[in-house]
Description:
Elements: H1 14-27, H2 31-48, H3 63-74
Amino acid sequence: xxxxxxxxxxxxxxxxxxxxxxxxxxxxxxxxxxxxxxxxxxxxxxxxxxxxxxxxxxxxxxxxxxxxxxxxxxxxxxxx
Length: 80
């Protein structure tokens, strides 16, 4: 790790915070260490892997796209 340090502040979901704390406690790690390692790992993957093999952790779709996916899954059409 670099010798200098900078504090970074961000908002995360309660469920992510809970998962982070549970993992850190179960493995005897400090949350700050775990966060930095995760960021370094993710940034390295972004540098080294082709973009088409990186799968986003979340997928955001529009209301219309979500409706179309739901219809395709259920086989039911709804009126607009």
